Amino acid sequence: MRSHYCADLVTLEEGSELSIAGWVHRRRDLGGLIFLQIRDRSGIVQVTVEPDQGDVFAAADQLRSEFVVVVKGKLRKRPENMVNKDMATGAIEVVADHIECLNAAETPAILIDGHEEVSEETRLKYRYLDLRRPEMTEKFLFRTKVTSALRRYLDEQGFLDMETPILTKATPEGARDYLVPSRTHKGSFFALPQSPQLFKQLLMMSGFDRYYQVVRCFRDEDLRADRQPEFTQLDIETSFMDEEGIMGLMETMIRKLFSELLSVELPNPFPRMPYSEAMEKYGSDKPDLRVDMPIHTVDDLVKDVDFKVFSGPALDDNGRVGVLNLKGGAANVSRKNIDEYTKFVSVYGAKGLAFIKVNDRAAGLDGLQSPIVKFLSAEAAEAILQRVDAESGDILFFGSDTSKVVADALGALRLKLANEHNLLRDEWQPLWVVDFPMFEEEDGQLQALHHPFTSPKELDPDALKANPTGTLSRAYDMVLNGCEVGGGSIRIHNMDLQQTIFDILGIEPQEAREKFGFLLDALKFGCPPHGGIAFGLDRLVMLMVGASSIRDVITFPKTTTAGCPLTEAPARVSEAQLKELGIAIEQKK
Amino acid sequence: MRSHYCADLVTLEEGSELSIAGWVHRRRDLGGLIFLQIRDRSGIVQVTVEPDQGDVFAAADQLRSEFVVVVKGKLRKRPENMVNKDMATGAIEVVADHIECLNAAETPAILIDGHEEVSEETRLKYRYLDLRRPEMTEKFLFRTKVTSALRRYLDEQGFLDMETPILTKATPEGARDYLVPSRTHKGSFFALPQSPQLFKQLLMMSGFDRYYQVVRCFRDEDLRADRQPEFTQLDIETSFMDEEGIMGLMETMIRKLFSELLSVELPNPFPRMPYSEAMEKYGSDKPDLRVDMPIHTVDDLVKDVDFKVFSGPALDDNGRVGVLNLKGGAANVSRKNIDEYTKFVSVYGAKGLAFIKVNDRAAGLDGLQSPIVKFLSAEAAEAILQRVDAESGDILFFGSDTSKVVADALGALRLKLANEHNLLRDEWQPLWVVDFPMFEEEDGQLQALHHPFTSPKELDPDALKANPTGTLSRAYDMVLNGCEVGGGSIRIHNMDLQQTIFDILGIEPQEAREKFGFLLDALKFGCPPHGGIAFGLDRLVMLMVGASSIRDVITFPKTTTAGCPLTEAPARVSEAQLKELGIAIEQKK
């Protein structure tokens, strides 16, 4: 029914015969003529119908917004003074010979042509209308290009696109699993995978050498703007390659992607930063390098001051006094702002937020405006100002607490200040964060910072057991503009080492056997050295298209309560279905 | 660690430096030398280590089957008389300079190098070993080529690779759903999709025009050799195109696939057969055209015979007398075979299986050997023999019952005879089956033969309601060698027509609203004409690689009781998890 997509008509000669199929985006009647804007996935073109055109005019006259039509006609270049420079096809129009209406439309519940504010609930309920809006269509066309470019690169590099099960066993990522009751094994449940981690490792043990998959993963967590119950991962694993090899391949892939689709040249190589530096300087394991403003440490400068709030943490091994310098911010930060920031950092456990406005850098203590200046000697104040490169007009914020609270609070405040004061440079800042600790302590219990299959750098069991928290892992995260877009590691390929890690994590042999017995077995039968990475595809696309939520790049997303307003899933099911599965709904007491 | 895959070494010059990484497939000690066969995903190559090689020899001497190694060395062409013609790399070998063992292996539970019979349970439990067997590795390498070729074609044709939800609402395919309890909406359940049917239609209504997806689908059915709880579909939908357009694109895709990967040229165009002809001539809606032997109808020839078993069905509008002629089979079919065939057809409801052996075609009734000949006149017998092209040495089998029983019984017997008597030609026989009835009657209730969104050919509501069983649909199935590999249709794009179909199916307005309200809504807002198809990817790959079960082309399949011997899924979960989901396991009474 169609000879061309609307956007492709610009390639045609004047007078070319053509047919297009799509929706009436807009209709205008002017000077006896009818102007139709016809929309398809590629874009919009204007169709002109003149009053002397009998049947064609009559057909056009019946059309309303979102009617589905096929238009046959001829291409006409618009005269210079009629060219619409805001439209990609603004230099041409179609003179209609024939118009067929294939379907009518009621007045759409969402304006396709326009910018009205519509609630997200309505957008999701009428998602098929929301997706027709050109700005949404474009995001999804872009998404298909991203997937396709990534696949092409991985295919070229000899990676095999292989599938792994969705109905499987609980995986070790640690989030809550979605469960599926089994009918044939009543009382037992499948878990939907949080990632194909163990299966991709098994594929390496099966000898497939290089694997990738664009794969759905599931986490039953409470949702935030960038979380969904189901999300898509670009999952990758390879054998016989170390972290240098894998990181090199992966950053080349991302560089090519940005170059091809956004004409953006990312740095080569990506910078790298140890986890410890990221935490100290940016208070985050995914620093956003589009803004400067590191967290300065001034422990050595304040440990002797007569101000316990500073000297206490400065003298404590687990404590820290950190400072952010908001350059030129003194004039733009009001008392009210400071109160708000104080409340903001309290969410991260900070008990207060000391500040210093540097009104006159040359005037010593007299040039500083702050409730805490009275506790500082002139020398200490001067040393701090030097440490943070303070100039007149700056404002300094202090975090003084455990190292963790200071990192969390000032790390978050740094991003908030950057946003509010427009300090985020319009640029792409990729980064590898490396040298992660193998374990972190939570409530006195060691946890794997990544997952328990990550290889430590220390391979000696005794050394590992003697100092687990001092051990670094062979993990690497790819960070882009403050978002973790990918994370991976070299995995353990030796059974004894895997057993040692389980021991350190306090996983009892029986539990290890039950949960991961098949992996321990597999490690005995000739497991190659291997490692990999997984990218959050939704998040990567979200960043690339500049969307504010992954919901804008997922065709049919769930709400924050994990429901679908369109299909009204989840839904009640029949008693008979439950009975067949051998389960019952618990009655509320 | 690797310069080349093993199979690629044949491209190198004599003396080239190389390194390979893989598994010790086999080790032989001969005349003081050690011969290692090293295996990677590409194949196997021989590595030779000589006794005067000190460290290298010592390292080689430690190696056993399935040890993981990196070998560095030089390429050597084998002398003419040492060439192993059974090996793809049999004309070369690697002279090792350096051998590093990366991991040891216990004696594998499955022999990788060999052809011992292993139970399927063991193969699945140690799937990572099973998959290392070269014949299995090859199947999966082929599968990745199939997926990749299909994607490439669809990308070129402007189809967009888009994703649809896995946590969704019950879909209308009619098989049993897998359910997922919702934690945030207690007492409600998601269903895993049996296909993305409604979502792909919604994508058409969203204006994406051409969609495809390699997508996991789920059916909680009792399993057979070619069924799995989760399976993979190549799912396709397009707007503004009729069945001719879609079938043309799809058969071109399959032709290209076979040409590229198997060097097989399929017919252009694929033959087409109406459903009614397929059922009458082959007793199946997916006839296997690799064998001739149609079911002949002889109703007109036996309606007057004095043999109720024949004349009854022949005179009944719903009855039929059908005949299979097994050419040259008289000598090879014993009384015992016939008893077995009689039992075989009884499964399909046939009450008996009359036969005639044509011993001497020229001798009239005297030349025929059969318990039923005495009931036939010479004229009737002669007419039947003529109708079925009988010659001396043939044996005829009769089905005499309702048309359905005759089709089922003789359709199945036809394939059984073809298999047992080696009548299946070694060729590829694709076919479109078209002109399906829109509805079928089951227990007095009308059911959609495909699904209720399939467009009928008759669009007038009154005519449809007056004669639903006489209405054909716009559905088409692609059949290959007797397997349905794809099925699709033009969909309904008009709300009134959709409502009429629901009415005819006896779906109450409230039920229609609850289940498909969102679709009915969507049809009101400018739905384009659209249609599509879905291919069973596992089955297509199974056919192409000549596997006997889809389990051989799925990485980690389930057993026939829907369990995974490797991970031991499904598994028990904790009471706490169930409590969070608001469900309980029903106690057995």
From TrEMBL, chains A, B:
L-aspartate binds at E173, R219, H450, R491. It is found in: Cytoplasm. PROSITE patterns: AA_TRNA_LIGASE_II (PS50862). Residues 197-200 are annotated as: Aspartate. It comes from the Bacteria. ATP binds at R219, D220, E221, Q228, E484, G536, L537, D538, R539. One of its GO terms (molecular function) is nucleic acid binding. Its EC number is 6.1.1.12. GO terms for cellular component: cytoplasm. Pfam families: GAD (PF02938), tRNA-synt_2 (PF00152), tRNA_anti-codon (PF01336). It catalyses: tRNA(Asp) + L-aspartate + ATP = L-aspartyl-tRNA(Asp) + AMP + diphosphate. Residues 140-557 form the Aminoacyl-transfer RNA synthetases class-II family profile domain. GO terms for biological process: aspartyl-tRNA aminoacylation. Keywords: Aminoacyl-tRNA synthetase, ATP-binding, Cytoplasm, Ligase, Nucleotide-binding, Protein biosynthesis. NCBIfam families: aspS_bact (TIGR00459), PRK00476.1 (NF001750). Homodimer. Catalyzes the attachment of L-aspartate to tRNA(Asp) in a two-step reaction: L-aspartate is first activated by ATP to form Asp-AMP and then transferred to the acceptor end of tRNA(Asp). Belongs to the class-II aminoacyl-tRNA synthetase family. Type 1 subfamily. This is Aspartate--tRNA ligase. It comes from Pleionea litopenaei. The lineage of its organism: Bacteria, Pseudomonadati, Pseudomonadota, Gammaproteobacteria, Oceanospirillales.
